[in-house]
C-alpha cells in the first residue's frame, strides 16, 4: 500500500503541469458512444479504422485473422465524439478455438456499440459469411451502416449490387485504403449517434507490458470486469496493442494491453516482429508502464531489457508479480530482494504482488500507478533544490583539474517528463557520470520520485 503523499506531491495534484498535456480521453463506461467495425477477415476493417483515427494504429496484413481483439480509439466527426472499435475478423461457422474466441470478442463489441459499421469486400463479392454476419447485426437491434469496401477497382462495379441481398438496405461504397467516400460513411455514422454531454478529463495512460503469457490480458479483463481482451493459454495470443478505457475510484484510466514482447531471435514471423514494435510504441505513448512478472519463471533477461527500455523512454514504472496465489511458500521480501539485485539502479521502482485470478492486490496496483503518474509532474521548489545541492557539494565536492575547482552557479528543475534537473557550472568536464548519479540520489532525498526516472544534466554557465 502506498503511504500518504507529501505536501509537495499534494500541491502538485492541484495544479496542471505544462509538461503533462496528454490526449483527452474518457472512460467508455457510458460516457462516449461506441462505433464497432465488424466483418469477416480481410475485408479492410483495420485499414478503415486507421483511416478514421488518422494513423497506423491497427496492424494491417494480408493474413486473415491478424486483428483478434478489440482496438479502441477516441475520435470525432461532425461534432460527435465517440469511440471507434476495430474488431477481430469474424468467422461465424468456424469451430477453431481461436476463431471462436474472436467471435465472442466481436459479439461483445456489437453488444456495447451504439452504431455498427458492417464492412464487406466488393472485390470478393457476397459470401455466406457476410450473410451470417448481417443476420447477427440485424438481431443486435443496433443502428448500423453497411459499407462496401475496395470499390476503387474496375472489377468492383459488377458485384456491389448483390449486397442488397443482405437485407440491410442502402449501402455506402468506399475505399478505406484511398479514403474515397469515408467522409460520407462517417456522416452516416454521426447522424445515428446520440448527443452526449461530455466533461473532458485526462485519463491516466497505463501500458501493460511484459513477456508473453504472464497475465497481461487477464489483468485488463479483471480491471474492466469483462472479457475485453482475448485470453488464452497459448503464448502470443494478443498480437496488437489494445486500448481499453475504464473508470476506477482513483480516476479514469486508458489501459494499453500489449502483445507480449519477445526476444528478436524468437520472433519467427514478420507479424510477431511488428507486434514487438507495437509494444514498444505503447510504452512510448503511456504515462506509466506496468511491467508484469511471473514468479514461477523468475526474472529473465527479457524482463530486464523491457525495464531498461521503459527507463530510457522516461516513463513511470511499476513492477507487478502476478500469479502470487501460486506462491504460498515464498515471501514478498524474497522476491523484492531478487528484483533489487537484478535492477541495481531500480530501488525507486515500486513492487506490487497481485493475482489476476483472485483479484488480490489489484486495488493497490491501480493506486500505485496513479501515485507514480503524479510523480512525473512533481516540481521541487528552486530554493529547496539549490540549498540541498549546495550542501551536497560541500559534503562531497567533485574532483578538480589542477588548480581549477568545480563550481555550481545554479540548479533548476526544467519542464518535461520525466523530471529533469540542470546544473549550470563552470566546467562540465569536472562532473562525471558517477557524480551525476550522486546528484540524482540527493534529489531523491528531497523527494523520492517513486517509479520515475530522474534526469540530471550539467551545462556550462554562460
Number of strand elements: 15
Estimate the mean pLDDT confidence: 77
The fraction of residues assigned to DSSP E strands is: 15-25%
How would you name the CATH homologous superfamily of the largest domain?
P-loop containing nucleotide triphosphate hydrolases
Largest sheet: 6 strands, mixed
- Structural class from helices and strands? alpha/beta
Q: Which overall shape is indicated by the principal axes computed on the Cα atoms?
A: elongated
The level of helicity is 25-40%
What is the fold-level CATH name, i.e. the topology of the largest domain? Rossmann fold
Assigned CATH class of the largest domain: Alpha Beta
Distance between the termini: 46 Å
Order of strands across the main sheet: 2-3-1-4-5-6
String of helices and strands: HEHEEHEHEEHEHEEHEHEHEHHEEHE
Question: Count of DSSP helices?
Answer: 12
Radius of gyration: 26 Å
Overall domain count: 3
What does this structure look like?
- The protein has 462 residues and is of the alpha/beta class.
- It contains 12 helices and 15 strands.
- The protein folds into 3 domains: 7-22 and 200-375, Rossmann fold, CATH 3.40.50.300; 34-192, Rossmann fold (3-Layer(aba) Sandwich), CATH 3.40.50.300; 382-460, K homology (KH) domain (GMP Synthetase, Chain A, domain 3, 2-Layer Sandwich), CATH 3.30.300.
- It is 31% helix and 19% strand.
- Strands 2-3-1-4-5-6 form a 6-stranded mixed beta sheet, with helices on both faces. A 6-stranded mixed beta sheet has the order 8-9-7-10-11-12, sandwiched between helices. It has a 3-stranded mixed beta sheet with strand order 13-14-15, covered by helices on one side.
- β13 (408-414) and β14 form a beta hairpin.
- α11 packs across α12 (433-446).
- The longest helix is centred in the first third of the chain and has 16 residues, at 97-112.
- It is elongated.
- The two termini are 46 Å apart.
